[in-house]
Write a structure and sequence with these properties.
alpha+beta, binds the ligand Nc1nc2c(c(=O)[nH]1)N[C@H]1C(S)=C(S)[C@@H](COP(=O)(O)O)O[C@H]1N2, binds molybdenum atom
Length: about 260
């Protein structure tokens, strides 16, 4: 098979898998220039859409054990003073339950034992903070995608919101608790995990114990620490100041791609 035939075959397969209409027609291309024009623009659109989706599904770079940073900075909240968090911390998180609710068929309340029994992934990745520093660590956690499938995310849901225990700015009574959100493409990305281990140890308090998000294609502020609840939602407007995250409400990008 020629390289071109190979390429055509791949494009047809991609279009077919994305439900593209042009694939079925492209073997019997009509000579009429108007038909040609329509087909070409449809093909272009399909390819751009597919290209965007393929880019979103690409894996973030993973590193070797030797690359792990000796000194990974803890940033933002590092020791939440919130009463419910202190209670869980003192109790060794025995009564902690990660709630998964909102637009789901079967709400969940998972203990750390339950969470560790879920399908997990271990990955050595680089954390990039918007302030200009980076560190590499090994994270282990429950993959978010199968967990959401277990809860049964409803069709109306478009985002996953992560509610956190910590009030980042206790001096500002209006600040509210830290929260973050991602769309369903990132929620189902293979490297998106609810991390409960960092470098082979239970997640330290400074880095978000007992559970934090790792969404590896995005910047540091998306990596929600101290997660108390995960909510499937159709709209981000009701949360915080409506921009989808604590820092987004203060001017940062919602999609913080790296
Ligand atoms: N709940 C919560 N999550 C958070 C923050 C925070 O203050 N509270 N800070 C964010 C920012 S800006 C960064 S860079 C990372 C820092 O993670 P680290 O403490 O493990 O370095 O957590 C992010 N997630
Ligand atoms: Mo950050």
């Amino acid at each position: 098979m020629s390289a071109d035939a190979n390429r055509r075959g791949w494009l047809k397969a991609m279009a077919a898998s994305a439900g593209g209409l042009w694939a079925a027609a492209c073997d019997k291309i009509n000579d009429d220039p108007k038909v040609q024009q329509v087909l070409q623009s449809a093909e272009g659109l399909t390819r751009r859409t597919q290209r965007a989706l393929i880019d979103r599904m690409a894996l973030a770079r993973e590193f070797a054990e030797a690359d792990i940073s000796k000194d990974f900075r803890a940033n933002g909240s590092i020791s939440p003073g919130d009463a419910d968090y202190r209670t869980h911390l003192l109790g060794g998180f025995k009564d902690y339950r990660l709630v998964v609710d909102g637009l789901v068929e079967r709400p969940l309340a998972l203990s750390l034992v339950d969470l560790r029994a879920q399908a997990s992934r271990t990955q050595i990745t680089r954390h990039d903070c918007v302030e200009g520093w980076s560190s590499i660590a090994k994270w282990r956690g429950a993959r978010l995608s199968p967990l959401l499938d277990r809860a049964g995310v409803k069709r109306e849901a478009r985002y996953i919101v992560f509610h956190c225990f910590d009030t980042l700015d206790p001096e500002d009574p209006k600040a509210g608790k830290y929260y973050e959100s991602i769309d369903l493409v990132d929620a189902h990305h293979p490297q998106t995990i609810l991390a409960y281990e960092m470098n082979g140890q239970p997640l330290p308090v400074g880095h978000g114990a007992p559970v934090r998000l790792r969404v590896e294609r995005q910047l540091g502020y998306k990596q929600a620490k101290y997660i108390s609840r995960i909510e499937a939602v159709a709209d981000l407007a009701p949360f915080g100041r409506g921009k989808g995250g604590f820092w987004e409400d203060r001017g940062y990008e919602w999609y913080a791609g790296i």
